[in-house]
Amino acid sequence: MSEPELINLLPAGVALSWGLAPASTRGPKPGMSVPQIVTAAMAIADEGGLAAVSMKSVADRLGFTAMSLYRYLSSKEDLLILMLDAGFGPVPEKIAAAQGWRARCRAWSRAVYLGILERPWLADIPIGGAPMTYFQMRWLESALQALAETPLSGAEKLNTALTLSSLAMANARLTRDMRQGQGQDGAADVGRRFEEALLGLLPLGDFPELAPLVRGNAFSDGDDDEHEHFEFAMELVLDGVAHRVDASGAAG
């Protein structure tokens, strides 16, 4: 397949992430570049969230008009695709350095989770399909390499990677939203207020499983570790993967 044919198959933002889209020859000599535009957009998102990013706000930061950006990007959607790709960036080397498939998967999942918390606006970018941008594919390749030594089938490895990615992204979004909701209070303080409210509500109905948990301070009994739920969920998934790995090895 020729490069022009490949470019025609891909969304413009995806093609740009691979360096495939040809530079425009229309208009005056370019005064900026796609990487400059993406960097400016990410800086705006870091400061004010994804809602603050528009073609106009990016152009203003760069000292150009909004219309001039369309010489480089066909739409804001393409900009968001490139922001998502650059926001995750290269895969940390420590993932491949971890010993054993489980340690590598754990390091990979934590890197996705913490990467989103470092740039919370990443969780607000709509996912329009399977990962196709350059760095997204590098992250997927890293997850598959983490599982390479296992007897899992190719489909099982791919589904494991996608499950861990979904888990990390969902939990990062939850942690981010909890941070915003609790303000200066710790998770334990929020949990205690939640329990106090529930203690007043539970007599209104029959909650034989929930009521003992609330009375036992299950929502506030902890060390205020906001990552506890993610760590628990990740290990639960990895336990399931380990069971599948053991079963596949025995069958082989």
Helices and strands, with pairings:
Elements: H1 3-9, H2 12-17, H3 34-48, H4 55-62, H5 66-69, H6 76-88, H7 93-97, H8 101-118, H9 134-146, H10 154-182, H11 187-201, H12 210-215, H13 228-251
Helix pairs in contact: 3-4, 3-6, 8-9, 8-10, 8-13, 10-13
Keywords: DNA-binding, Transcription, Transcription regulation
DNA-binding region: 54-73
Domain HTH tetR-type: 31-91
Description:
This protein has helices at 3-9, 12-17, 34-48, 55-62, 66-69, 76-88, 93-97, 101-118, 134-146, 154-182, 187-201, 210-215, 228-251. With 252 residues, the chain is mainly α. It has two domains: 3-87, Orthogonal Bundle (Arc Repressor Mutant, subunit A); 89-186 and 224-251, Tetracycline Repressor, domain 2 (Orthogonal Bundle), CATH 1.10.357.10. Helix 3 (34-48) crosses helix 4 (55-62), helix 3 (34-48) crosses helix 6 (76-88) and helix 10 packs antiparallel against helix 13. The protein is flat and about 65 Å long. Keywords: DNA-binding, Transcription, Transcription regulation. GO terms for molecular function: DNA-binding transcription factor activity; transcription cis-regulatory region binding. This is AcrR family transcriptional regulator. One of its GO terms (biological process) is negative regulation of DNA-templated transcription.
Keywords:
Arc Repressor Mutant, subunit A; mainly alpha; transcription cis-regulatory region binding; DNA-binding; transcription regulation; HTH_TetR; transcription; 252 residues
